[in-house]
Write a structure and sequence with these properties.
The chain contains 13 helices and three strands. It has 366 residues and is mainly α. The chain has one domain (51-365). A hairpin with a 2-residue loop joins strand 2 and strand 3.
């Protein structure tokens, strides 16, 4: 027999073990797992409590990547790196000041105009000669819908919720303004240290893989930057066109609707469709003729945007399939609201670029 019992020790296959080794380890294992679970839970709660700050940092990082193509564009037009950075940072400050001193007061006044004018225009529409036959043909649905719309738009809570959702990303207006300052300051700082930050991050990669890592990272940042800057440019053109069109046909609140159109149009594929539907409904309340003009003009603009503006503005930025756009927008919106929907799409663009630039070539070589 290879095993025998001796006093105080146990020998098994020539190995001597102390009886203390046979103590049950379940208590120690359970204690360790419990501590690990509590630590993970505490870490999760801590991250959740600072989610607003963390999201602002991510938003500023994306804004920096989107502004970098503008810096490089100025450099190609005989600006020095410092001059291009100062110019772009001055532009960021000017936009922030314009939002505080011009955009916000106009938006507030436009909300007051819409809240008072739309119920009056609904009442005037009900008195028009064509309304009663149209309402009867729809079995009263048209009248019920217009009544609900007038009541909803006249409710201050509706506009407060809209302002919180669009301007504040789910926060109060005061918190949105403070967050905007924080993001703007971060963008300025990130822009001024963009190249140094990238170089420092690249040094964390081992020298044997650094060249490949730098190559693909620069490609991803370049394409995502082009995509972000192109997306903002397209949204600004759409917003400007929406404002001019609604102002031309006399629809009240044209400036406010144009601001909302800017944020909604940032979502590709569906943004322009959503703004067209909303603008047509509001123009219809003003007058059916205005609605027809707005609808035709927006349909024409959608074709121009798809075949003229997008190819020129987006350039060689990575293209995202429509299904990926919808899935990304829905997932991002579920997590962080409108801002999450906007940021999820560039993330998807980066993932698609990695698949095209890294995964597919590696599979071809395998």
């Amino acid at each position: 027999m290879n095993s025998h019992r001796t006093r105080g020790t146990v020998s098994l296959a020539g190995r001597t073990r102390n009886p203390a080794d046979f103590r049950p380890r379940g208590l120690r294992w359970g204690f360790t797992v419990t501590l690990g679970g509590l630590a993970a839970l505490a870490s999760g709660l801590a991250l959740y409590s600072i989610r607003g700050v963390f999201f602002s940092i991510i938003l500023a990082a994306f804004a920096t990547v989107g502004l970098d193509p503008l810096v490089r564009l100025l450099q190609r037009h005989r600006f020095s790196r410092a001059g291009a950075l100062i110019t772009v940072m001055a532009l960021v400050i000017a936009v922030l000041v314009a939002i505080l001193w011009i955009v916000i007061p106009l938006v507030v006044s436009q909300i007051e105009v819409l809240a008072t004018s739309i119920p009056q225009e609904v009442d005037a529409m009900k008195d028009a000669g064509w309304f009663d036959p149209a309402n009867q043909a729809s079995n009263g649905v048209l009248g019920t819908l217009l009544g609900w719309l007038a009541e909803t738009l006249a409710d201050p809570q509706t506009w407060a919720a809209l302002a919180n959702g669009v301007v504040g990303f789910g926060l109060s207006l005061a918190a949105a303004i403070s967050s905007g300052f924080f993001v703007a300051i971060l963008v300025i700082y990130f822009l001024s240290t963009y190249d140094a930050t990238k170089d420092a991050a690249f040094r964390l990669v081992s020298a044997s893989h650094r060249e490949t890592f730098v190559h693909y990272t620069e490609r991803i940042l370049e394409n995502v930057g082009k995509y972000l800057s192109g997306m903002v440019t397209v949204a600004f053109i759409n917003s400007l066109w929406s404002f001019v069109l609604l102002f031309a046909v006399g629809v009240p609140g044209a400036f406010l609707i144009g601001v909302i159109a800017f944020f909604v149009t940032l979502i590709p594929l569906v943004g322009t469709v959503l703004t067209t539907i909303g603008m047509t409904i509001i123009a219809f309340i003003h007058s059916p003729t205005s609605a027809l003009i707005v609808l035709i003009a927006m349909l024409i603009y959608m074709q121009v945007e798809s075949y003229v503006i997008d190819p020129r503005v987006m350039g060689k930025a990575v293209q995202i399939p429509g299904s990926v756009v919808l899935i990304s927008a829905m997932g991002g919106a579920a997590l962080f609201g409108l801002a999450g929907a906007l940021l999820a799409i560039p993330v998807s663009a980066g993932v698609i670029l990695i698949i095209r630039e890294v995964v597919w070539p590696a599979k071809q070589r395998a």
